[in-house]
Amino acid sequence: GLDTWASIAGPVLTLVATLLGGCGLKGGSPGPTVVGSVRNSKGEPLAGATVTIGEASTTTLENGTFMLHGLKPGLQPVTVRKTGYKTYQGNATLGKEVTVLPPIYLVPLGDKEEGTISGTVVDLGAPEPGVVGASVRLYRPDGALVAETTSGYMGTFVFEGVPVGGPYSIEAEKPLPTGGRLLGRTEGVEVTAEGATSSVMVVLVEEGKAGGIVGVVKSAEGERIRGAEVAAVMAGKFSVSVRSGDGGTFEIWPLPPGSWEVSASAPGFLSASKIVSVTEGGRTSVELVLSPRAPSQPLPQVKALKAIAYTYPFDALRLRRLYTASLRRLLGGLRPLPRFKPPSRGRGRPPGFIHEIVLEWSLSGDSSKALGFEVLRGVNPQALSLRANIPSPLVRFFSDIDPDLNAGATYFYVVRATSHDSFGEGASTQATLLPEVRPEHPPDGAEVFLSSLLFIADPIPLAGAYFVQVLRTDPRSGVEEEIWTGGPYSAKEIERGIRYDGVLLPQGTKIYWLVVAVDDSEDPRAISLSEVRRLIVR
Predict the structure, then answer these.
(1) 6 pLDDT above the threshold of 50
(2) How far is CA 454 from CA 250, 467, 494, 516, 518, in A?
(3) Domain that holds residue 75
(4) Do 248 and 154 share a domain, yes or no?
(5) Considering the domain boundaries, does residue 98 fall inside one?
(6) Residue 378 and residue 356: Cα distance in Å, rounded?
């Protein structure tokens, strides 16, 4: 059944009525007021749906929202109907004042009623953040366990066949060899039939070293808000979400120590955020005050959206440090770098190469007016579909790794700010994935003279150039260091072979070489990485 999301005090009733166009709110009527929204399986607002709660009914507006007043407090049945969609039936526990329900999803007849949740379990303090072998559990809004799995390659996990709706919560745990355990939790995960819930992140921290954030969410009038969405974000990428409970209070735990920006948002309000410092074993207190949002206030505009397309072999997951060091040196600190993680769907070892498109953006205007972002993707700029919902206005990064991405194809993206009932002006970009680069000679593990030719098979024409890098591992620090870079080379040059002319190395030295194709006709936009070949100096 549905949990109530928020109980907002009397002064907010007028604000909510204004937000929803004044539908159904009669001054002086007794009983609770219920506010909510209805969406289709793609997460888009659904107008004209009939919502019945208890004995009262209404119809959703153009923005998919609805309001009912004068209901009985306590547990009430909820039914939502619309022609061409499967009927939704559930329950909601109503408070004594205003109750905000989570979005209700209607599935078109003939469509699946299930979606997929996938993500990554990470330990931000580890050299390789992805945590393998963590126990990952998925819970319904009422706290019932839905499914349990174990994180696989580089910390990835998948829950398939999850009923459309939410919000779900995810917990992860892994025992430590020395005793103790790593713990993590995130909430507010919603599922659509389009599966647009990938890239959920669960941040683990050692139980004894964990810190946290505790606080309360209030309105400007001092009324406490139940059901507000609260998110803590580190470095604009790592996000943990919860919902405020009774009395507007919340706790985000466990978190690794460091600087976190925490934000809160709720229907009818501007979001608010503060930067706090989380200490080991401590609980940092914060109060977030939400001001009313007028219906006419525009959302901030997404700008400076850039995309970089990466094609890389599965080896990049195992040799992540080597690939990252290579890219940073070659591309001069170019951001964003790939996440180097496997596709979010499917089981077992993904074959061959992986395709990833990394997005970064900035925001023009007051970020407090946004509740989060939507990422849209398509092969036609006129026909984009929802790829992901990002439930925090603080995040400025999205990594799109999908088995449906194909080498040589061009993909179009739009990122836009969202609120509960509107969208901001989005920014668009596109990215074309390069085909795979495959070294041909010398073979992996060969003993070679350093003057030997290095070349690849069937190089692809580029609007940029090829580079060849030779690296070795420093025996003292264990860090990969570049000893030679060749390039830029054309496709014809690299097909004929490239001769190493770097420093002389002692016999028996283990070195690595790889080829990087960079298509930078404008800004660096597409990069293809070859497999790494290990050679032994003869």
Answers:
(1) no
(2) 58, 11, 8, 13, 18
(3) 6-106
(4) yes
(5) yes
(6) 15
Residue 33, helix vs strand vs coil: strand
CB 230 within 8 A of CB 244: yes
Q: What is the pTM of this model?
A: 0.63
Tell me if 131 sits within 8 A of 241, measured CB to CB.
no
Q: What is the pLDDT of residues 127-149, one digit of tens each?
A: 667 788 899 999 988 788 999 99
Separation of CA 211 from chain center: 23
For residue 318, what are the contacts with CB-CB under 8 A and spacing of at least 6? none
- Measured CA to CA in angstroms, residue 132 lies from 152, 157, 234, 260 at distances of 5, 9, 22, 25
Going by DSSP bridges, is the β-strand pair 447-448/533-537 parallel, antiparallel, or unpaired?
parallel
The model's pLDDT over 247-256, given as tens digits with 9 standing for 90+, comes to 788 988 888 8
Our CA angle for 188, 190, 191, nearest 5°, is 160
The count of residues in the chain is 538
Contacts of 207 (CB under 8 A, 6+ apart): 180, 181, 182, 183, 254
Q: Out of 270, 290, 310, pick the residue that ends a domain.
A: 290
Domain count, the chain: 4
Q: Are 46 and 39 in contact (CB under 8 A)?
A: yes
Establish if 1 belongs to a structural domain.
no
d(CA 537, CA 446): 9
Nearest CA-CA partner of 310 in 288, 290, 339, 271: 339
Eight-state DSSP code of residue 432: E
All residues at 6 or more sequence positions from 368 whose CB lies less than 8 Å from its CB, including other chains: 270, 271, 272, 273, 393
- Cβ atoms of residues 207 and 182 within 8 Å: yes
Check: CB of residue 536 under 8 Å from CB of residue 509: yes
Residue 353 exposure: Cα atoms within 13 Å on the Cβ side: 21
In the numeric block, which tokens belong to residue 243? Answer: 């919902």
Nearest to 345 by CA among 117, 41, 42, 113: 117
Q: What amino acid occupies position 177?
A: P
